[in-house]
């Protein structure tokens, strides 16, 4: 098995998750870390025994021994870094949200078109979780009958201290938004994963709690019209002091109903009582399972699963489970929500 050598660009809170996930994959080593803040990459390198740290990500891209990179920086820098990495012949996995604007997204996607032989993945690790895979299968197989309504609510808390911890947080220029593009992005992506492509949308946002701290939204609402004809409601806030984290999906069909909270079913009922009982058992098996099937290999859940799939895609010269292009469609829909809120118009995707 050929050794795969990786670099991680950005040494903030998500970088150790990538580092530890790479370590779970046989034949993979992290050779270099980077961060523009002096000492930040070196401190992480010292903690994990990574041989090299630098301030300029081009040092990693110019290293011929590095096969692939994780992009773990602020949203606004993703597009340029991804494009530079692909053009330098590196395989790339980029954290959510793939980019902060459509312009940056186009930059990354055009670079992949120039370098189609390179693997380009966008991080949406919740697509690898067994219960989410089961729910998608249920929907696609018509277990709900005709789906009539769906809704998603995300309530979380981000404090002023959180937003002040990094200068890019809560800014339009560097984060590209707040609660939607950062905290609720995975849940928003799962709507696409479960229901298919979005046709058009309208949205509104406000800053209800963090007016003195951030310039972006801490509360957002949207109506999404999917290409299958469904209208879906979405709302999220980062000002929930009473409940610092809670999320819930609700699906109503002609044949079944499901309340799905924290990626777990909390109530479900189908006209077919056998199906109601059967699905209870299947969801219980998902809870017990710590591994999933993605492509041809058996992986653990979450980030380790996605990193393992990424490395497998590099070795097998295949597309990853979550491609950069697919991840980019979620980013484009998020950008459209912000555009709709600013203009007061429905946006066609």
Search tags:
single chain; 349 residues; alpha/beta; Rossmann fold; Dihydrodipicolinate Reductase, domain 2; 2 domains; 8-stranded mixed β-sheet; 6-stranded parallel β-sheet; 12 helices; 38% helix; 27% strand; globular
Give a quick summary of the entry:
The protein is built from 12 helices and 16 strands.
SSE order and pairing:
Elements: E1 4-9, H1 15-23, E2 28-34, H2 40-48, E3 52-54, H3 57-61, E4 68-71, H4 75-87, E5 91-94, H5 102-114, E6 120-122, H6 130-140, E7 147-156, H7 160-164, H8 179-183, H9 185-195, E8 198-206, E9 219-226, E10 231-237, E11 245-253, E12 256-261, E13 264-270, H10 273-288, E14 291-294, E15 297-300, H11 302-316, H12 324-343, E16 347-348
Parallel strand pairs: 1-2, 1-4, 2-3, 4-5, 5-6, 7-10
Antiparallel strand pairs: 7-11, 8-9, 8-16, 9-10, 11-12, 12-13, 14-15
Helix pairs in contact: 1-11, 4-5, 6-9
């Amino acid at each position: 098995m050929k050794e795969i050598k990786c670099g991680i660009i950005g040494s903030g809170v998500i970088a150790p998750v990538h580092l530890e996930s790479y370590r779970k994959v046989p034949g993979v080593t992290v050779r270099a870390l980077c961060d523009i803040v002096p000492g930040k990459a070196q401190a992480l390198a010292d903690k994990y025994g990574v041989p090299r740290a630098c301030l300029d990500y081009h040092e990693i891209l110019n290293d011929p021994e590095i096969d692939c990179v994780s992009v773990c920086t602020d949203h606004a820098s993703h597009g340029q870094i991804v494009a530079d990495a692909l053009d330098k012949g590196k395989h790339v996995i980029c954290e959510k949200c793939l980019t902060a604007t459509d312009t940056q997204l186009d930059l990354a996607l055009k670079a992949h078109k120039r370098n189609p032989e390179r693997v380009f993945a966008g991080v949406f690790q919740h697509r690898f979780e067994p219960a989410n895979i089961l729910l998608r299968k249920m929907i696609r197989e018509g277990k709900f009958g005709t789906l009539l309504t769906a809704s998603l609510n995300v309530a979380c808390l981000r404090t002023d201290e959180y937003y002040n911890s990094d200068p890019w947080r809560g800014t339009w220029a560097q984060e590209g938004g707040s609660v939607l593009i950062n905290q609720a992005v995975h849940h928003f992506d799962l709507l696409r994963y479960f229901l298919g492509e979005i046709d058009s949308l309208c949205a509104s946002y406000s800053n209800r709690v963090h007016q003195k701290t951030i310039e972006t939204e801490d509360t957002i609402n949207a109506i999404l019209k999917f290409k299958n004809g469904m209208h879906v409601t979405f709302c999220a806030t980062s000002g929930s002091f009473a409940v610092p984290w809670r999320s819930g999906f609700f699906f109503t069909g002609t044949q079944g109903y499901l309340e799905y909270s924290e990626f777990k079913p909390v109530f479900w009922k189908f006209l077919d009582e056998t199906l109601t009982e059967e699905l209870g058992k299947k969801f219980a098996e998902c809870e017990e399972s710590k591994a999933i099937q993605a492509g041809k290999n058996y992986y653990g859940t979450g980030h380790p699963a996605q990193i393992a799939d990424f490395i497998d895609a590099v070795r097998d010269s295949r597309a990853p489970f979550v491609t950069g292009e697919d991840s980019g469609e979620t980013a484009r829909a998020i950008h459209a929500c912000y555009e709709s809120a600013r203009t007061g118009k429905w946006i066609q995707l």
